[in-house]
Specification:
This protein is of the alpha+beta class. Helix 4 runs antiparallel to helix 6. It starts with a strand and ends with a helix. About 20% of the residues lie in helices and about 35% in strands. It is built from 8 helices and 16 strands. The strands form 4 sheets. The chain has a 5-stranded antiparallel sheet with strand order 15-1-6-3-16, with no helix packed on it. The protein has a 5-stranded antiparallel sheet with strand order 12-11-10-9-13. Helix 5 links the parallel strand 7 and strand 8.
Amino acid sequence: MLLEVKHVTQYHYARAVRESVMELWMQPQKGTTQRLLSFDLELDPPAQLFSYVDSFGNAVYHFDVPQPHDQLEITARSTVETTPPPSLPDALDRGEWDRLRSEFVKGDCFDFLRPHGYAVRTEALGAFVARHQLDELRHLDPLTAVRRLNQAIYEAFDYQPGVTGADSPIDLAIAEGRGVCQDFAHIMIAICRHWGVPARYVSGYLFRDRSDGHDRSDPDASHAWVEVFLPSLRWVGFDPTNDIAAGERHVCVAIGRDYGDVPPSRGVFKGETESQLAVGVSVRRARAASSDAEFLRLSRPAFSSAAPRRRASLLAEQQRQHHQQQQ
């Protein structure tokens, strides 16, 4: 599936700030089921972009706007080709629990087995688990248990933006019985880790057909889901917001222990003023292209008569080079 993603972030300040420093987790990853064809960042006011790879392997961009400004706009454009992941078996043998307790898994997945940040087991979560008898699922094999947990979270919560915020603890969503994808991912991660199943937070996007009423995710926002590590299958994605396995409609941007590791944008500014944040996301099928090379030429720099903007473009390599470097 060939997808185009546009992610616009706007910061508005009541009075001009003297300087802004920002970090961005917006570049889609490269992997066996996802190929990054192009990535473009556009900043207004203009700024010089720098990048690094964080400890989880995510591409992070950062910049400094050193002059006074009363708004900041960040536009990220990506083109990604996704393919369906391998089909999952109906179940695994119960020996998978023993493999999860191995020293290899405990060492290799150390960061994703410990409570962290928003993904922690609280008293409210313990009561939720007991009320829905979720710990009983551990009598099943790990794959079936995680599938049932994915379904249970979907059925237990309503999807409603505005009830929780980016920094809300999971107790708020549990108390309200409502929340968004970030909340459901944190709840599932905390339960999986308590079971001894490594689980990590995935930020990205979900392509949805607006005529399909099954998806509960906001089509104008980014998305979050969960990946669990099962030794026989490696990392497997589950989307508790929609009660589905992660597939070719999911575009992975970054992975971390929780949302705090991989927010789309994070930064500070100098000045005493109020700020407002506005975000818009669109994910659509890309225009058909007869070949990769011809398609990539569409990503050449563009210029406008409007205020100048600095562009940093990352174009995918040719297919041969990609396969040599693909993780």
